[in-house]
Amino acid sequence: MANIAVSTGVLEQVLKYQCSQEDKQLAPLIFKRLSCPFLVRQKQLEELQYDAAFIKQLANHHSLLKLIDVDTILEQVNKSRFKLLLSIGDVNDTGEFTIVDARKPSGLDVAYFETFSSGQDRKKAILHLKALLSDKQYIEIYDPYLVDKFNKVKTILLNILHQQAHVFIYSYFNTDSEKQQIASHISSYVKKVKCFQYDGYCMHDRYIKANNRKGAKDLEVMLSSGFEYLTDIDKDITYMVKDLS
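Now predict its structure.
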């Protein structure tokens, strides 16, 4: 089964890419969210007037796409695994199906994630987080309960942070002295650390946001549970890595 359906505009850019004729600005946005094999209607190929043998080669030998003989986009979308249409704004949103516009940063997106079940070791996740942050200068950490669990979280933070990092911690602090205490535990391991009051009333997930430009967001890591569950294995945890650039 094909993963997603694509609009005619997306299909055209993918086929042009095969011949190095793609839109240099648009194509990277498309390939960032494209999932192969993708689903194509026969009528889309007729509209674009591409050589049938070329398309057959892509479908049969490269597993890039799958052809389907249906009349409507809705039928095309419903035949895909994820019930999504990737577009470049060339399909009107009628509300009948879900559209992902490759040109827009918001909406459904592609991310890498892994789930660790209860009892499963999380060392691999910690190693990955350390690698992800190793070349990031500015690192923001969001966890409203980080202060309460700091004795467990401290070891994790010292494991994944590096000496050149500017670290900003957002959590719920009872007093200013708590901010100073948390900062003092980390300050000798990073270039700079600052704590901010953040009660997290509207936040359930925990986040790390990292970048090399102050005020920008290049990378986001979301944790489904508190940071302490990167060491505690009595509950499951999922971490997800997303490119924000």
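The mean pLDDT is 90.
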